[in-house]
Amino acid sequence: MTLTLPQRLERIRVRSAELEYWRSRETVQIDSWTFDGEPIAIGAPWSRSDGTVHFAATAKVPDRWPLEDARLLLDLGGESLITVTDEAGNERRLGLDPYHREFLLPSRKVKIASETVARLPFGEPVRGPKLECAALIWLDTAVNDLWLLLRQICEAVDILEQHEVVAHLLDLAEDSMRGLEWPSASAAYVARTASSPMQQKIWRLPPLEASPEGLNQAERASVVSAYETLLTRLKTLRERFPPQGEIALTGHAHIDLAWLWPYGETRRKMRRTFHTALSLMEQSSDFRFNQSTAHYYAQIAEDDPPLLERIVERAREGQWETIGGMWVEPDTNMPTGESLSRQILYGQRYFEKTFGVRHSVCWLPDCFGFSGALPQLLRQGGMNSFFTIKVNWSETNKFPSDLFWWEGLDGSRVLSHTFDNPMHGYNGFVRPDCFVPTWRNFRDKDKHHTTLLAVGYGDGGGGVTPEMIVREKQLRVFPTLPKARWTKVHDFFNEAHEAATRKDLAVWRGEIYLELHRATLTSQSVVKRLHRKAERSLITAETLFGLACLLGGERAKSMEPQWRVVLKNEFHDILPGSSIAEVYVDAANELETVIAEAKAAQTSAMEAIAAQLSPGPGDNVLVVNPSLSARPLGLMLPGGRTVSSETMIAPLGIAVVGPEALLPAPGLSVSRNHLENAILKVSLAKNGSIASIVHKASGREALEGGGNRLFVYPVDKPRNWDAWDIEEDYAARGEEITALDSLEVIENGPHRAAIRIVRTWRHSRITQVLSLGANSRRLDIETELDWHDRRTFLRTETSVAVRNARATFECAYGVVERPTHSNTSWDAAMFEAPAHRFADLSEPGFGVAILNDAKYGHSVRGNVLGLSLLRSPIYPDPLADEGLQTFSYALMPHEGTWYEGGVREEAEDLNQPLLAVPARGRALGSWQPLGATGIDAALSVVKPAEEGHGLIVRVYEPAGRRGAFELTLPSNWRNRGTVSILEEPMSDTPVTGLYPFEVKSWWISKA
């Protein structure tokens, strides 16, 4: 009878599985455990499961066991950091999780202690945790090695399918097993196999021997012979069927800074994972492990200084590879360009200070799309390479390349690589059925002979296992499979760059949009607003201190400690809103502290500015413009918001103004159904939505179908990833909220007119104040939500009298244009997309923009401007955005394009109004300590230089123009030249002029 190949494979699988039950020659249970100092028996439940608990015991390896074959086997009921103390008092720490449960022993007598939590790697609670298992085993290494090798042959046969080599691999496996001498004594055999799935199905097992015998010498010798013969025959077969392809392996343990667990648990995960990686380096000199995130190392320096010292030593030896060049692995859709610059600045500086290296590879495997600003910033930050795998998660369109040039907004390019491993992505495995599909999926084989593959358990940490180390060595002799070697990521990219000099690679221009996880632009919107306020408050505080310094004041100290908190909370599972509730309690507290400290710094800076000004009579007001655009005077005063076109505050200008400058512009009026000033005339529909906005200067009606129509979508229930995703059919079941609780005029000038509208939907309340300032160019919509409904999606939609195939969205350091139609699958997939402070739809001569101070999820379909206001998923936070939150958005008709109409400048004002404080005893006047000539540019920051004296001034070209540009400084200051975002000279970059979307920094100092 002839079996089919699948039948032969199944037979080998069944027979080889039996070897597992003879892995242990002998087993000795470890008793006398304590739990938080109290005795606990094996199998007993914990007396408490909250927080961190501590187990302790001692163990002794029997004298007849070879120490090198002894293993400590533990399952304490949760994740643990294990400390094993040898007879000399030396401590070794190891991570214990479901994938790391067997450990080498440093001596025959050991003390064991643990820090344990009743959690699994993905934050899942262990219900009813017990001290499950604690034993010493005498590992039969010969059996273990053969068992693993046969498993790898089965995996190879599985994935190679109809390949010619399959029959040969089956022959080898069958021959090796036929040569085994195997025990058959009934009592021992039944006891050894009692835990197998087949035996566990039996109604009732017979009494079992407590310590069944292992293999005898002859049986073990047959195993050794089978293993060595099998290896030799695999090598021979490899000559006939040489490797197909090459894979660069990097050991990896993706650790989410916070996700399904709070940050306190991440601190423990770091220590567990890092100790595990170091222990594997002691077992294999070939092994390479990479770990990104400067913040992690800074945290380890606080929590476990000896651990950091060991990491630094291994990094110097070349086994541990620090990587990434950023403070954390941040979301890149929502942070400002300045935040992304600080991620690189502080990350690279930390790595250089601690490890003596800078990184040339940006490592962002898990972020939800990538801003087109990144390539330029990476290049300025010393990185010429970029890695992610997330582009392969897009559900609609397959990203076209695996090895390609990514070209940013300004034309800067970085060499980019992604691999497509269907077996857990960047948490790959060392196994044939992981290698083969990864190589098959590599579409740029003709450009480069190698693809990267990161292996090791991750997201919740853990990393590479001892079995993976053994697997890599065994797979070196396998036929046909891709050749795989442990490699440093930097070395892989160095080789790829060399290949790119000989081959034409594809170029991807602009943002990399992920066709998935679109809801992360909206979920947990409270923390998104706090983050926006925190980064803006820090930028403003630094800029104010810079202006004070230019006037003659002292240079302010660095605000890096506060920036580090903001950067931490930009992590790609915090800012996107995809973490548990505890994470957002911490994030809100941290960001509110930063905001308070930044506001206090702003107050100190304003005082420092005032101290440099001339004395004079009167109760005047000190006004500072922290932007690089001239602003009409607009202040928040007790009488309301004052706007006057008669008084302009220069870019980065300082003015002391008197009461006469605060007179309102004429033309402001209000009733229950209209708001009007000299620029706009707004009419309300009976339901409180906006029926009309007339732009008086042009005579254009801005709306065609109504504005600020509030829609709620009560079936916001994605297939997967509740907090992450929005389904494309969400609008099929939408309700416009038209019912009114109240509509009343609450302010009637002369500085501001306002109408308050209150609505109830089910269990939630929406309060909006529609306001116009005297001479304001925009209609502000201040919103308070008191939300108490789950799995709903709230949006505002405005239909405008404008037609264009493309709309403009602000992004970090520039703008991106996107289609307003769904002509192609690529267009249709972009139904929700990121924008920072505005999105605009313009046609020649006229347009309408929607501005915001806290939101990121936008859509422009046809002539409808949409802004996502709130989502209320139930996983992983059942009460996400429950309760009160406030934010503002605005509608702005304008003449010309968004750029000609001053949309960005108005969005700046909404997010950072002019600063004003009483200036009693200060003379009237105006000053501009720092200015610019040439084309319009936007300010990123004025900050103290990281090294030495002086200031860094950073600007960017925001619209895609080029032209002359030059800073103007006080007579006693000098421009020392252009510098990178790392604040190092860029001798090849002209001091003057700006190119499209260029980010440019200068170091200025006193002459």
UniProtKB/TrEMBL annotation:
It comes from the Bacteria. SMART domains: Alpha-mann_mid. InterPro entries: Gal_mutarotase_sf_dom, GH38_C, Glyco_hydro/deAcase_b/a-brl, Glyco_hydro_38_C, Glyco_hydro_38_cen, Glyco_hydro_38_cen_sf, Glyco_hydro_38_N, Glyco_hydro_38_N_sf. Residues 515-591 form the Glycoside hydrolase family 38 central domain. One of its GO terms (molecular function) is alpha-mannosidase activity. One of its GO terms (biological process) is mannose metabolic process. Keywords: Glycosidase, Hydrolase, Metal-binding. PANTHER family: ALPHA-MANNOSIDASE 2C1 (PTHR46017:SF1). Belongs to the glycosyl hydrolase 38 family. This is Alpha-D-mannosidase. It comes from Rhizobium mesoamericanum STM3625.
